[in-house]
Specification:
Blueprint: H1 8-22, E1 28-34, H2 41-61, H3 63-74, H4 83-104, H5 108-113, H6 117-135, E2 145-151, E3 156-161, H7 163-168, H8 175-186, H9 190-208, E4 224-225
Parallel strand pairs: 1-2, 1-4
Antiparallel strand pairs: 2-3
Helix pairs in contact: 1-9, 2-4, 8-9
Length: 226
């Protein structure tokens, strides 16, 4: 089944923006939108492990409190736990805590909410680079391809440029394009944001890589969704 996160009007808008931007430059712009860049399964494992460790640590630090709690729960009729039984109880509590937290974090929105922003940025960047290597890198004669990647769930985007562009354009030059895109995404207008970012990218490309006498369209103008 075909994946489509944006409407047909957004596709038309972004495709037209790419075609217009490329009229003035030998650069080639590729646009990709993804629902999300990562499942963050490892984050759930880390949180479950941290909570389980903390639970066992608290019991180890305040053993008398928990022994008293055990006595109250058994009404004073419970037998004294041996060292091995006490250790087994602590481990069992840790295991139950781990399982409980892991099950709770199967709910993806909470898992993403507990993922640090820096990690999200790293995962989006890594995904953008992977897609760039597959579909954009070294696909143009002059190594003038550039990828605009948007990850909707994370509300993050990235721009990855081919060798010739990266040699002349510093990463921070794309800042205005990125800011315009993210601002529109946060207001629920990802298509308009992509189109505006493409326009600003085209301005930068036209400055450093003006259109030549021969300017074949080497990469697709259409918005790609995955």
């Amino acid at each position: 089944m075909k994946v489509q996160h944006l409407g047909d009007a957004d596709h038309i808008l972004v495709t037209a923006a790419v075609a217009e931007a490329e009229r003035h430059t030998s650069g080639e712009i590729v646009t990709i939108v993804a629902a999300q860049s990562n499942d963050y399964d490892d984050i759930a494992l880390v949180w479950a492990s941290v909570i389980a460790f903390l639970a066992m640590s608290v019991i180890a630090l305040f053993p008398e409190f928990y022994r008293g709690l055990y006595d109250r729960m058994t009404g004073g009729w419970g037998h004294d736990l041996t060292a091995n039984q006490w250790l087994g109880t602590v481990i069992a509590v840790g295991v139950l805590k781990w399982i409980g937290v892991w099950l709770i974090l199967l709910w993806r929105p909470l898992r993403r909410a507990l993922t640090p922003r820096a990690i999200k940025a790293q995962r989006v960047r890594a995904r953008a680079i992977d897609l760039f290597r597959v579909g954009t890198e070294a696909r143009t004669v002059g190594r003038t391809g550039v990828l605009l990647y948007l990850s909707l769930t994370e509300h993050r985007a990235d721009i990855v440029a081919d060798e010739a562009i990266a040699a002349k354009v510093a990463p921070d030059v794309w800042g205005e394009a990125m800011a315009a895109l993210i601002e529109r995404v946060r207001t629920g207008q990802p298509g308009e944001g992509m189109a505006e970012a493409v326009t600003r990218m085209g301005t930068v490309l036209a400055e450093h890589f003006p259109r030549g006498s021969e300017n074949p369209n080497e990469l697709p103008n259409r918005l790609i969704e995955i």
